[in-house]
Amino acid sequence: MYKQHLLNCIEKEISICRRLFTKIPSDKMNFRPKEGVRSILELLQYLSFIGSAMPDYWLKEEEVDMNVYFGTCVSQAKTMTPDQFSSIMNEQILKIKTLFEQITEEDLIKKEVTYPWGSKAPLGEAIITTSIKWLSAYKLQLFLFIKLTDDQKLTTADAWVLSELGPM
């Protein structure tokens, strides 16, 4: 049950991101509020892998250096164009579902993993601290950037409740 709750949260965040994407004015992909802050396109690129990156890393069979792994994810994401975002987010949720098939309820509570910053936590807690929180945080940044670029009347519901309907 816990596993399904985590998966539901990740799916919901991705679905909201896909809906928010449809609200971005096409001429505003390179918008950034100031120098040194990610642009809308860069946020989309980051969102394209951040929900699955850590579970994928933690469940790898072979030992992989975290910095190398994450650097590869970032490099691959930088090639994504805006028209690929929805399909890549669909692929990300399929990847998450496949990863979750490898996890048991007991794994979520008893399997200890190491965060990129060095501390350890049970896998379930770590998924909340990374995948779910990161998707939520960058989704909200995207939401705010869209509000800054357009006169659309986005509301709190757009950030937390409204999601794209239909099959992924």
Descriptive key words:
8 helices; 168 residues; 62% helix; mainly alpha; two-stranded antiparallel sheet; Four Helix Bundle (Hemerythrin (Met), subunit A); single chain
Tell me about this structure.
This protein has 168 residues and is mainly α. The protein has one domain: dinb family like domain (Four Helix Bundle (Hemerythrin (Met), subunit A), Up-down Bundle). It has eight helices and two strands; from the N terminus they run ααααααββαα. α2 runs parallel beside α5. The two termini are 22 Å apart.
Question: What general form does the structure show?
Answer: globular
CATH architecture tag: Up-down Bundle
**SS-based structural class?**
mainly alpha
* Largest sheet report: 2 strands, antiparallel
Number of helices: 8
Instruction: State the CATH topology.
Output: Four Helix Bundle (Hemerythrin (Met), subunit A)
> Which stretches of 5+ consecutive residues score pLDDT under 50?
none
**Terminal residue distance:** 22 Å
What share of the residues lie within helices?
Answer: 55-70%
Number of domains: 1
Going across the biggest sheet, name each strand in turn.
1-2
Mean pLDDT: 93
CATH class: Mainly Alpha
